[in-house]
Design goal:
With 365 residues, the chain is an alpha+beta fold. Helices cover 30% and strands 21% of the residues. Strand 13 and strand 14 form a beta hairpin. The longest helix has 27 residues. It is elongated, with a radius of gyration of 22 Å.
């Protein structure tokens, strides 16, 4: 099994998850083994396997910001309410063919996409799988295999979008991360499924994500090109080598032409095109706008600024995101991080089907 990390005052021991997972097959193999997914793929038998263990681990901070003592206490109280519901699921509390540890968690900035919604905290419960004959340590912690989160939808795994022109993941208006996905792919018990793996229960009718528009996409491209201009000028400052200066001047001319081209493209857009959702095809050092039906088209989204009501008390349960791999049948959509191997589908379907969804919905009231 994967070696665990003892609890520390930090986020997930997987490290930063805020950059796109563009991995070669060789690197992906290392990552899967490192996360334990590849090792666990052949250790599960939820139908004929032996009874495993259920362990409640210690509370753990996730994401990239600390909470003050009062917020931490409030967050853990919310997490305890979620835990009381989660442990009613026999596929979690009485596992067969595997063992489970659940940890109460709390945070401020999300681990995926490093997003701060403006709420004082989010909280919830994450679960990790182990071999049936293994007794998980309650004082250790590692990245989750499933989770139930209050007041965030961005603990469901997503990739942030980094355009090849940019040195960092795109942010809309400097605060909303552009993500690959965030698409509605179905419904479960009357609630919308996002990216085939996340159900969001909410007090409001607002969706947790809204599409990045084609206009916003082109404007962000222009911003990235202007950043390239500044970087190139900085690199040329004090440069005395004639060949390097000539190359730099040529690069500046090409970037200026690209900015003009993008601006002309933007000016030619009618209102309908400007507001249309942005879909991209990505490849080696390239990304281009495409139609939604094109092969490999990935929708781009941002967190919906109207999703949460910031006037409510901090401990109000406004939304619950339930992350369960294989929640929806069919292949995984384009643009998502790698997840559990298909061997785990039967176990995840049992967890999904036996989860107390009515109990979770009651937390919203």
């Amino acid at each position: 099994m994967v070696r665990e990390h003892k609890s520390v005052a930090a986020g997930y021991p997987r490290g930063s998850m805020a950059t796109p997972a563009r991995l070669s097959a060789a690197v992906l193999g290392v990552v899967l083994v490192g996360c334990g997914w590849a090792a666990r793929a052949h250790e599960i038998d939820p139908v004929n396997g032996k009874h495993g263990s259920f362990v409640v681990g210690i509370g753990q901070k996730v994401g990239g910001a600390n909470l003050d003592a009062a917020s931490r206490q409030s967050a853990l109280a919310v997490a305890d309410k979620v835990l009381a519901v989660v442990r009613r699921d026999p596929a979690i509390a009485s596992p067969v063919g595997y063992s489970v540890r659940v940890n109460p968690v709390f945070g401020k900035r999300t681990d995926w996409a490093d997003f701060d919604s403006g709420l004082p905290f989010y909280a919830g419960v994450v679960g990790s799988f182990f071999a049936a004959d293994e007794k998980p340590s309650p004082t250790a912690f590692k990245g989750p295999d499933f989770g139930v989160y209050v007041n965030t939808a961005l603990q469901c795994p997503v990739n942030t979008f980094t355009h090849p022109l940019s040195k960092h993941p795109w942010m809309l208006d400097g605060k909303f991360p552009v993500i690959e996905g965030g698409r509605a792919t179905g419904a479960f018990r009357g609630y919308t499924i996002y990216d085939s793996q996340c159900v969001v229960l909410s007090r409001k009718k607002e969706p947790p994500f809204v599409s990045l528009t084609r206009e916003q996409y082109v404007r962000l491209e222009i911003e990235s090109l202007k950043e390239r201009v500044e970087i190139t000028r900085q690199n040329l400052a004090g440069q005395t080598n004639p060949a390097l200066r000539s190359a730099g001047d040529s690069a500046l001319q090409h970037i200026a032409a690209a900015i003009t081209e993008r601006q002309q493209e933007l000016d030619a857009m009618d209102a309908s095109t400007r507001g249309a959702p942005a879909f991209v095809q990505t490849g080696y050092s390239e990304a281009k706008l495409v139609d939604s039906g094109d092969d490999g088209a990935i929708p781009l989204s941002v967190p919906n600024p109207a999703f949460f009501d910031h006037s409510l008390p901090s401990a109000t349960v406004q939304a619950i995101a339930v992350y369960v791999p294989f929640l929806q049948s069919g292949p995984q959509p384009e643009g998502l991080p790698a997840g559990l191997p298909d061997d785990w589908r039967p176990a995840m379907e049992k967890i999904r089907d036996q989860l107390d969804w009515a109990g979770l919905t009651a937390l919203l009231q």
